Amino acid sequence: MSLNDTPAGERVHIAFFGRRNAGKSSLVNAFTGQDLAIVSDVKGTTTDPVYKAMELLPLGPVQIIDTPGIDDEGELGELRVKKTRQVLNKTDLAILVADATAPLGRAEEELLALIQNKGIPYLLAWNKADLLDTVPEEGENTLWVSALTGLHIHALKEKAAKLAVQEGPKRPLIADLLQPGDTVVLVVPIDKAAPKGRLILPQQQTIRDVLEAGAAALVCRDSELALTLAGLPKLPRLVVTDSQVFGKVAKIVPPSVPLTSFSILMARYKGDLSLTVAGARAVKELRTGDKVLIAEGCTHHRQCEDIGTVKLPRWIKEATGVEPDYTFCSGREYPEDLTPYKLVIHCGGCTLGEREMKYRQRTAVDQGIPITNYGILIASLNGILERTLEPFPEL
Q: Where are the domains of the chain?
């Protein structure tokens, strides 16, 4: 996989915010070296967040986000401002663009306070510095730049890379559970939702992380799992399966071999594993008619046996005998108000960044709503949750 193919969820998200006509979109173009954002003297040209993947050295692959003006007006303007604020939930580094010829306005001060309250690293970029008689010295989080002349654009990129690096690396997906020379068996049913000829993203990422650990990844379908295990000279260090075949795989894998799923690995990688384990217990408290939100981080064409909309509701009914009232959401839309729901069931979040996944979990916790994960819930419904958590010593 090349850097340009790095999934969005694995990229550092750098978002540009600012008032209309502060030169925000011009600065985005100067920063990226591309005509990413439409530039106009007309206020409010940017009407929706614009996303662009690029490389920012020495940081590496990043996702650049250009947002609508935070001072937009009218009913549509309020919706745009709302979308802009929602971008904060996935932002790893915020760049607040202000007009160097004017003081900060109320909207900018409020947004800056919100950025600081959320603990998001930020830079305050005073644009149009070419119009000043004297350009002030840069500060720790402040820089005077000009999108028109290119003044201090390189310094802005260096500061951005430095701040983003300070966020620190996330934990490995699976590598910390392995030793060099270990063998990991990955059980991969041919998923109808996967792009033809390719594995789905969590499977790709797991294989790469196994290799990073100096271990060997042996991939097979569930239909060949028994034959695969029988042909190994010794039992594998770990078996990782697609959650949808948990029940079948658990019967095949010897009890002495640790077993988990790609979805559970993602829950640990992107969020709070113990929180989602606790959330799975709430299924026992559900009653027919209770509202349940099933959320996915990406949008895809749903198949007739889609896991979120078809299989999970069926499995919950089979295990509990109740039929909750389900609501489904996918992609970037995630309800701010979760109070109508008795439970939130979220996918592994492979396309989401760690910050956004944790924001979604924190939103549920703050409102007192249990939240769990596809793989953890499926393991619980199959009565094998304890077994699937054995590989994780922190639990």
A: 3-165, 175-265, 274-381
Query: How remote is the C-alpha of 321 from its chain's centroid?
Result: 33
The Cα-based distances of 98 to 40, 52, 136 in angstroms read: 17, 21, 14
CATH fit for domain 3-165, picks 3.40.50.300, 3.40.1160.10, 3.30.70.20, 1.10.10.10: 3.40.50.300
Collapsing DSSP states into helix, strand and coil, what is residue 104?
coil
Strands (DSSP E) contained in 10-136 are 12-18, 50-56, 60-66, 93-99, 122-127
> Which architecture does CATH list for 175-265?
3-Layer(aba) Sandwich (3.40)
Residue 42: exposure state from Cβ atoms within 10 A (0-12, 13-18, ≥19): exposed
- Does 3-165 match 175-265 in CATH topology? yes
Strands (E), 189-272: 216-220, 238-241, 259-261
Q: Are 17 and 127 in contact (CB under 8 A)?
A: no
Q: What percent of the chain has pLDDT over 90?
A: 69
- 123, 156 in Cβ contact below 8 A? yes
Q: How far is CA 222 from CA 92, 104, 181, 219, in A?
A: 38, 60, 24, 10
Can you tell me the distance from the alpha carbon of 47 to that of 44, in angstroms, rounded to the nearest whole number? 6
Tell me if 90 sits within 8 A of 74, measured CB to CB.
no
DSSP SS3 for 94:
strand
For 234-269, write each residue's pLDDT tens digit. Answer: 999 999 999 999 999 999 999 999 999 999 999 999
Among the listed residues 75, 118, 95, the one whose alpha carbon sits nearest the alpha carbon of residue 31: 95
- Give the DSSP letter of residue 27: H
Q: 2: pLDDT confidence band, cut at 50, 70 and 90?
A: very low
State which fold the 274-381 domain adopts. Rossmann fold (3.40.50)
Structure tokens at 151: 């003044």
Q: Which residues contact 284 (CB under 8 A, 6 or more apart)?
A: 320
